[in-house]
Amino acid sequence: MKGAVVDVDGTVLRGETVLDGALEGIAALRDAGVRIVFFSNNPTTTSDDLARRLRNAGVEVDEDEAITSATLTAEYVAENCASPAHVTGEEAVVEALEDAEVSVTETPQEAHTSVVSVDRRLQYDDIRAGYLATIAADDYVCTDPDTVVPTGEGDIPGSGAVEAAVSRAAGREPVVVGKPSEYAAEAVLDALRTSPDETVFVGDRLDTDIALGESVGATTALLLTGVTEEKDLQASEHRPDHVLDGFADVRDLL
Hints:
Layout: E1 3-6, E2 13-14, E3 17-18, H1 22-31, E4 35-40, H2 47-56, E5 66-68, H3 69-80, E6 85-88, H4 91-99, E7 113-116, H5 124-136, E8 139-142, E9 148-151, E10 154-157, H6 159-170, E11 175-176, H7 182-192, E12 199-203, H8 206-215, E13 219-223, H9 232-235, E14 242-244
Parallel strand pairs: 1-4, 1-12, 4-5, 6-7, 7-8, 8-11, 12-13, 13-14
Antiparallel strand pairs: 2-3, 9-10
Helix pairs in contact: 3-4, 5-6
C-alpha cells in the first residue's frame, strides 16, 4: 500500500471534533510511508479551508493533501464548461470558481453553466434561481451527490437534496463531480501519484467513498463511524473489502 484516499466527515471528524481512533489511524498510515489525500464531498469549504479545519482539530496535513468537492468542481467547470456560472450553494463554491478564473453571475438567465450544491441558508427563491439557471445553461453541474451530511448536531440535508429539487423542476440531470465520479477518482490518484492497486479508499459511505474505490478496482475500507451502519451492508450493491469499527483499525490492514 502506497496511498490512501481518506474521507473526512464521519471518518476523521464529526463537526469539528476528531473521532476516536482517527489520529492513531492516520499516524499508522504515515509511519508506514503511505501517502494520504483527505477528500471531502462537503462543498461548504475549499481545499485550503479543509486543510485549516483539519489542522485546527489536531490533524497534521499539508495544503496539497486536502481536496473538497467545491475545489474539484471549480476545476471541472474551468476545464469543461462555459462561463459565466451561476451558483446555487455557499460562498466556498463561488470562491473556488473565482480562484479557477471562472466568472460567476448572480443573474440566472445569464448562466452558461448552472452549479448546484448544498446551502445551509437555502430559501425558496434560491431553488427558483437554480431552476432558472439550469433551464438556461448549456452545462449543469452538481458538486456532490450526498443527500445527507454528518455533523456534530446530527445528519443534515446535503447537496443531493438541493440537486433533487432543482433537477425535478428543470427536468434535467447534472454532471456530478465529487465522489464517486470518474473525474474525482482520476484527481485523487493523480494527487497521490499511485495506481489503484497501490491505494486504499477509506470512508463511512457506501455510495460515495466505497463506490469511488470500487470504480477503479482499489482496496476499500468502510468505517462504521458515520452514516453507514452494519445493517446497511446487506441492502447495498457495494461490498467493501474491509469493514472497520474505527479508524484506528486501519493498522490491521498494514
